[in-house]
## 1
Amino acid sequence: MKKVLVVIGIAIVLSLAVFYLITSREYQRLDSRYVKLQPGKEELIVLVNVGNGDRKYIAEKINKVFQCNPKLIGIDLYFKEFSPEIEQDSLLLNSIQNSKPILATRHMGIGTQGVNKVFLNAALDHGYAELNAENGYVSNFDVFREMKSKKDFHFAYTMANKIDSIAASRFVNNLDGNNSDVVIRKLSDQFKIFDFNENINCEQITNKVVLFGYLGPTDEDKLTTYARFHDDSDASGPDMYGPIVVANQILMILKDEI
């Protein structure tokens, strides 16, 4: 009986070892595919966390950033409703009209959604900010989607195209179809992030790409990526905010990292 138990115990240990080896190798394969980290601080893209700020707060931050002469402003937020009678709506519209940012929208396979046309018409351009997940991990995105006779482009691609149209065109031409992996080049702590209520420093904004979005304090818009084991995030929860993923997509497109 003891020999039988020993054999069973050995079989269980071997099974667990084989399972661990297979899953470990699979993770390493996926990790090397979706994570290609570059050392050092990111120097092109700066992020602004809108936190719990209302539209008046966001408008004031946009105006302040615009005064610092950035290369480009992107806003990874959805402004669905607009009423000219509401002061903060008018303030937000004025800030968008003056700064001419790229706005994030939804698409859901039916065209531009999620942002009021008043804001869209005031902006420089827009693109859908949607990602595809596999097994719960952010893995890829549609760089463009064809709707009848026109193409709708992803928010990250639209941003990258305004920064360097030659690099963006090269990226699309190298695609096999319209889909690309999401490759993480920089972790969250490698970006300069102006936190909620932090004063904007123009020296860190001038001629930079500035991306507005939600980066805490809650896990709203926080995603699970294959970079999760490369930083100090909780391994059981989401590890990277949406705007950080967008920033990595922009870098990937500009560097043709596919």
## 2
Amino acid sequence: MSSEDKVSPYHARSGSETADTLADVLEHAAAREQAAHKRAAPKKQPKWMLPLGINLGVFAVYLLIAPPAWVIVDPIEGPPVAAQTESLRLGMYMQIQRIDAYRLANGRLPDVLEDAGSVVVSGAEYRRMGVDQYQLVASVGDSVVIYDSTESANDFVGDAANRLRGG
């Protein structure tokens, strides 16, 4: 800006500039007022929505009361009994190890299974058959698995013991 330019403060505008600005502001306000009055009312719901809603409601009630075959989901079957039996044998093997550790530490068999530590196989039955003999009995489905302490624990569990050890 050079010293020759004449700069006047904002409030020192000429009367016509102020009148033009005021006219523009008033025009804008009037246009906004008209637009507010022209605002359209919300759209009414289409006529097809009511029959559709009623039909969908009736269909939902039908599915709840008398579900067709394609709605019913088949239950997921558990693992085969052989896999469950092997898993049970592994759990019993771990319980046998705890009982044997208790016998080594205390010089006798535990009175109840909980004395040997937390129960690994829920539903397993522990029976003392004498001073140094016991049985563990558990079941999977219809099959009953029995471990007698007169047999080797490794023979009882088979090659699953090697998998348990990581071999």
## 3
Amino acid sequence: MIQRILTLCRYLFFNQLFSLSGAIFTIATFIYYFLAFQQPTPEIDYFILVICLFGGALSLLVTLSVATRAHMAASYPFFTRLPNRVEYLIAILITSLIYATTLEIILATLALWRHGPQLTINWALIIPPLWLAVNLVMSTLALHATDLVTKEWSRTYIFTTLAVFLLSQTPSPAANQWLVDIIRQTARWFQSQDQTALFTYLQNFSTKVEDHIIGNTLGTLFWPFKAIADGTINGSFTRPQALAPALLILYATFLFLLAADFLATKDLHLIEE
């Protein structure tokens, strides 16, 4: 199994490396370097967060590119020889992470070489889990945006749910009040129909929405990203904040298992180049 996955990784990596999209990603890395690190950057928090943002975005785009190329009809011989489709998905994920992380390391090396911050041993040990956790969760999320993994309406459901969670982070007062009014109007309609239980439930729910309890609860999904940013800016991590990378890895594990289930049970239609 490991040998098959490594073979697939080599094939996908060099396929991506010598493609047009591979050249674009490499050029984008140097452009980002000149835009973000043109001036000396002695602040370690700026160095970590700016490169972490780049790595996450690049991991998402690279995974989309690798998965799209892996979905082409030229990959048919691999599917027929593999005992399990999940091995193919693992190879796509590993290839994407290696490719994106390599470009991220090149960017970090250039930034350090050209008047970068003083990198202490403590920060050198902290940076890898932060960057890798963000890259991993973005790559697994990108898998669900590809036609290779998407099963029926799964892409719509997943990204709509994430959009709702994201919007709950910064709720608009007007939109929040509009939602409260709609819920209360619905509750009064149930009251007029003598549905006391539903009326009571909706009234209580509208109160929680009005007090932003629901929004704050939904917003906890993005707490690891906030914890990483806060800990980096403050120069040290509290015990809960130190667990943020582990929680991101847990997110990535769930997303990958969901993607593996979709791919293993769907009717696969390879696309022509």
